[in-house]
Amino acid sequence: MKITIRYFAAARAAAGTSEEVLDSAAATLEALLAELATRHGDRLTSVFARASYLVDGAAWRDRTAALPSDPTVDVLPPFAGG
Fold first, then answer.
1. Per-domain boundaries in the chain
2. Is 7 helix (H, G, I), strand (E, B) or coil?
3. What's the CA angle centered on 39, arms 53 and 7, to 5 degrees?
4. InterPro entries, per this entry (predicted)?
5. Beta carbons within 8 Å of 8's beta carbon, 6+ residues apart
6. pLDDT (mean) for 14-28
7. Residue 49 to residues 1, 26, 30, 44, 78: CA-CA distances in angstroms?
8. What is the CA radius of gyration of the chain?
9. H-helix or E-strand containing 34?
10. What is the per-residue pLDDT for 35?
């Protein structure tokens, strides 16, 4: 499955890129995050713990729910400001 991951703010800094496309067998967001943590090392682990996620534009709170086919996943860390 082709998964597009878009990183914002602190997630972009930790990943060293704003976007990447992976061929992945990750069936859930939890599996995808584990794969990305392995790929990028510990830099993203603390960001993932605090981040919110959008999958194809919809809020995704259940990390164990099945991902749709060829999704776009947005990684949104907490934003400062008002």
1. 2-76
2. strand
3. 30
4. Beta-grasp_dom_sf, Mopterin_synth/thiamin_S_b, ThiS/MoaD-like
5. 18, 74, 75, 76, 77
6. 96
7. 24, 18, 11, 9, 11
8. 12
9. helix 29-40
10. 95
Q: Which two tokens stand for residue 17?
A: 């890129």
For 24, list phi and psi in degrees, rounded to 5.
-135, 150
Tokens of 34: 């584990």
What would the two tokens of residue 19 be?
């976007």
How much of the chain is helix, strand and coil, in % rounded to 5? Answer: 35, 30, 40
| Cross-strand bridge partners of residue 3 | 22
Per residue in 51-79, pLDDT tens? 999 999 999 999 999 999 999 999 999 87
Give the amino acid at 51. Answer: A
What's at 66, amino acid-wise?
A
| 72 DSSP β-pair partners | 4
Residue located via tokens 């996620």: 53
